[in-house]
Specification:
CATH class: Alpha Beta
CATH architecture: 4-Layer Sandwich
Keywords: Membrane, Transmembrane, Transmembrane helix
Distance between the termini: 59 Å
Organism: Pontibacter cellulosilyticus
Pfam families: Lactamase_B_2 (PF12706)
Order of helices and strands: HHEEHHEEEEHEHEEEEEHEHEHE
Shape: globular
Number of strands: 15
Number of helices: 9
Radius of gyration: 21 Å
Strand content: 15-25%
Number of domains: 1
Strand order of the largest sheet: 8-7-6-5-4-3-15
Protein name: MBL fold metallo-hydrolase
Oligomer: single chain
GO molecular function, one term: zinc ion binding
CATH superfamily: Ribonuclease Z/Hydroxyacylglutathione hydrolase-like
């Protein structure tokens, strides 16, 4: 009896060990997981005031541990909760973009075009920028599983013209996509990323000379534009072993006259006021507004907090992002935009609600139609 029990324990131990080895092998052999920082890149990370105890830290205390009760609640909600309207019952259409017109960008107007989720094309002072250009089908390291896109792309990666710069907020799969970066490498002049993220890009074939890594509050000049990496309240990681090993950031983009704020992912915190005081007012704020839950509200804002963050930033026009493309949380897919527009109306905040692919031109009337209601079941 004792011998049988020992054999069972031995078999279980070997099984767990093999699973760990297999997981590590998969991570090291599969390029989509990215790479760890080494050498000079790692030395730069260690010198960051935001890197302590072997990992990057949030700007304020942020508990990301759901605890036993929270974990059970999250699992049971996913397994047994109502799944009504987590996504539309058919693919959301997008306004198609003309690559020829985009290629002839003029230095006349600032154009912000939502490509879905948190991906944007920004035409500013004659330059074309992409923000978090996740243009793949799944927010996952695998092509056969994981959250699948439920909205059309307004333009394909192949159709995109030359891009002056790509800005990345952090390395999660719904913001940094292996296939998208591989496709964009040849047509992009430069990549701007938070500390450590450059290791992923280099593994994917982007030359080190095309990558600039910034810590919070650091700035870079690029062809007449200024990019500043600013704090956010979130986390990073592409596998089980690299959590908090690369930095996450929001971005300030400043041109000759117009100024843009891009939140990436973030829970609400007083840092928005600090950014607003240092860099505001902003002509437009692109602020996270979806994939939230009370269980993880420290790292993803609730829609009402999105409006408050816009006010903290001294924004003139709010454009809600991080919704309408992937179902990464348990709320109905229209809840984020319904809640944020209601709060914006209450606080008399100017808000834009473009369709995916519909341009927002600064200085002109912003799109404000409730278009999503056309696709509710």
């Amino acid at each position: 009896m004792k011998l049988s029990f020992k054999i069972i324990l031995y078999v279980l131990g070997i099984t767990v060990l093999l699973a760990i080895i297999a997981g590590c092998s998969l991570t090291s052999l599969s390029p989509q997981f990215g790479a760890e920082a080494e050498g000079q890149r790692m030395e730069k990370i260690r010198q960051s005031p935001n890197y302590r105890h072997g990992e990057f830290q949030n700007p304020v205390e942020t508990n990301m541990d759901l605890g036993f009760k929270g974990t059970v609640k999250a699992i049971t909600s996913r397994l047994f909760g109502k799944d009504d309207n987590l996504e539309p019952d058919h693919m959301l259409p997008a306004v198609k973009l003309d690559s020829g017109k985009i290629a002839n960008t003029k230095d006349t107007a600032t154009v912000i075009t939502w490509l879905g989720h948190s991906a944007f094309m920004v035409e500013l002072d004659g330059k074309r920028l992409l923000l978090d250009p996740m243009l793949g089908d799944r927010a996952s390291p695998f092509s056969f599983m994981g959250p699948k896109r439920f909205s059309e792309l307004p333009i394909t990666l192949e159709q995109l013209p030359q891009i002056d710069a790509v800005l990345i907020s952090h390395d999660h799969y719904d913001h940094l996509d292996y296939g998208s970066i591989k496709e964009l490498n040849e047509k992009t002049t430069h990549f701007f990323v938070p500390l450590g993220v450059g290791a992923h890009l280099e593994r994917w074939g982007v030359p080190a000379g095309k990558i600039t890594e910034l810590d919070w509050w650091q700035e870079a000049r690029f062809q007449g534009l200024t990019f500043a990496a600013t704090p956010s309240r979130h986390f990073s990681g592409r596998s089980l072993s690299d959590r908090m090993q690369t930095l996450w950031a929001s971005w300030v983009i400043q041109g000759k006259t117009d100024k843009i704020f891009f939140s990436g992912d973030s829970g609400y915190f007083d840092g928005f006021k600090e950014i607003g005081n240092k860099y505001g007012p902003f002509d437009i704020t692109l602020l996270e507004n979806g994939q939230y839950n009370e269980l993880w509200s420290n790292i993803h804002m609730m829609p009402e907090q999105t409006v408050q963050a816009h006010l903290d930033l001294k924004g003139k026009l709010l454009l809600p992002i991080h919704w309408g493309t992937f179902a990464l949380a348990l709320h109905p897919w229209t809840d984020p935009i319904e809640r944020v527009t209601a709060k914006a109306k209450e606080l008399q905040v100017n808000i834009a609600t473009p369709r995916i692919g519909q341009p927002v031109i600064l200085g002109e009337k912003a799109p404000k139609a409730d278009w999503w209601r056309e696709y509710v079941k």
